[in-house]
Structures are given as C-alpha cells and as structure tokens.
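tool_call: predict_structure(chain=1)
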Amino acid sequence: MGTLAGKTLFITGASRGIGLAIALRAARDGANIVIAAKSAVPNPKLPGTIHTAAAEIEAAGGKALALQVDIREESEVVAAAAQAAEHFGGIDIVVNNASAIWLAGTADTPMKRYDLMHQVNTRGTFLVTRTCLPYLKQAKNPHVLMLSPPPNLDPKWFAPHTAYTIAKYGMSLCVLGMSAEFAEQGIAVNALWPRTVIATAAIGMIEGVKAEQCRKPDIVADAAHVILTRPSREYTGHFAIDDEVLREVGVTDFDRYALEPGAPLLPDLFLD
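tool_result:
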C-alpha cells in the first residue's frame, strides 16, 4: 500500500463529509492538508468548520492549513493556492470535492440555485485545477481527483433534476478533457464516485433517504487513498467507483463501511 506521507493535498470543501474523510485518511499517513472551504464559523445546520477540521487533521497525524475560500471567487482561489504552496513548499494533489446540490425539476429550480451549482461544481472545479497547475507540474506524482460520477446520458438521470445533473457532469467532463490534456505532463486526472449514498449532510437533500441505507464517508476516503498513491503516469482518465477500487486491492469486507451492517443499501445517483 502506498503512502501520502509528506504530500500536500489541496482539498475543497474539506470542513466536513467526504472531503474531511479524505483529509483524515491522508493525515494518518502524515500528509499536509490544505482545507479550502467556506465554513469558518459554526453553523447549527451544518457541523464542522475549517478550524475544527484542522484540529481533527492534526490529531490524526497530519499538518493542516485552514483557508477560508469561496471557490467561485478567482482571486480567493489564486491567493489560497499561493499561500498553500508557500506554507508547505508546493501542492502535490488537488481534490475537487466541493459541490452544490439542488434536486428539483426545471420549474422548481430558481436561477440562483442553477447559477450556484454551475459556479461551484463545474466552474469551481475548472478554476481550482487551473490555478493549481503550475504547482502540480513541479510535483513528483501529481494527481487531480474529482468527486463526480461516470457520465451517463440516460434521460432518467436528467429528467428529475436537469440543472444538477448538468452541473455535476461538468465536473466529470473536466476529467474527460483534462486527463488527456495533461497526460504528457504526467498529471493524473480521475473521478471517484460512491456505489451507494454516503451519510453526509447532503442526504437531507434526497427525499426518502434514511441513514441506515448509507455507507460512511470512510469508504470514499479509502478508495481515494488508493487512487492518489498510484503512479500518476499509469492511472489517469478513470471514472472509478469506490468499492470497485477497494476490491482491486483486496478489500472484501464492506460491512464495516455501512452505518447499519446488513441493512439494504441505496444506490447513489447516476449509476445503473
């Protein structure tokens, strides 16, 4: 098993959920984590801030840099990347985890929600990756990882929430293009998506989902760790599924990732 010891990860939306889980898994190796997220003060509806995340990361064995960043704002992203590189001596890995969700039909999607999803999901992913490119080019095993699904053009994944699907697939299309664009430079660009719904704050947006139908964010974090420790010139352009990645490295017990072992699991969006 590879290690992320000494690597610097720039993770968007790392104050909670999957982003934080990926950060903590890397921290256990002794990695440096840049927490690039908006939450700097406690929110009763959304637990976790960049500061609480930093404390958890350092307790897990990593080094943390908490930066309040709105990835919709280019100046903030540019400043954060520069500060991160100066603080830790570079950036080895970018994890585009930040995402906005609004699961509603066309008539029930206000344009401000449409704009938010596209600014955070597609544009934010593009902006963060573009901004970090100069640092990634200097890294020994550079990776970019998007938390986005395999593109699936079945209309059933568009009809209930066209705006969200377009915005989320925008992240995936970045993988499709950038993996080919950066291949000669040895910068890996991959996507990772969970087989099942993951127990995060976002499940409140999905009608009818119960916690016992979900897996823990740890499964995505463990799969991300596998991907990010692979040779960047040998593994790029993949749309990986968390449990498939883990099976490839010999994991057979997935009950430990379930909130309620043995309970039926709910498949995530975009997977047939």
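agent: The radius of gyration is 17 Å. Proceeding to next step.
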